[in-house]
Amino acid sequence: MKQTFTPIRIFLTILFLCILFELIIYGELSFYHTTNLTFYGAALFLILGLFGATLSSGFFDFFNYSMRKAAFNIRKGRNSDEELHVKPLSKVVGKGYHFFLKVGSALLIVCVLTLLAYYLIER
């Protein structure tokens, strides 16, 4: 049976690793440390997801095409009869960024909930 990486599995794995890391490093579970550790994971996944969303939106398509055309003209010469066929960058990236946004959002929700619990319960 093939194991698939679903956002829920990755989220639970990272949350488990954060709690395990917290127990190893700090020797206790606290809302404060859980907030800090889950924020690191959330930030990483959200940065990757937002970077992918920006690329797939088509914002950099013209820039990518221009750079490839300039490099093509330098390599082949300006009077080349060959046509330049460049797939848009937004089509190359695709929709894989949704995975990172889902995992990062779930971790951020846990981060905010533990931060609220820290201020309402522990302090």
UniProtKB/TrEMBL annotation:
Q: Where are the transmembrane segments?
A: 7-27, 39-60, 99-121
Q: Which InterPro entries match?
A: DUF3899
Q: Which domain of life is it from?
A: Bacteria
Q: Where is the DUF3899 domain?
A: 36-115
Keyword Glycoprotein on entry: no
| Coiled-coil regions listed | none
Pfam families, per database record: DUF3899
Q: Which UniProt keywords apply?
A: Membrane, Transmembrane, Transmembrane helix
| Annotated protein name in UniProt | DUF3899 domain-containing protein
Biological source species: Carnobacterium viridans
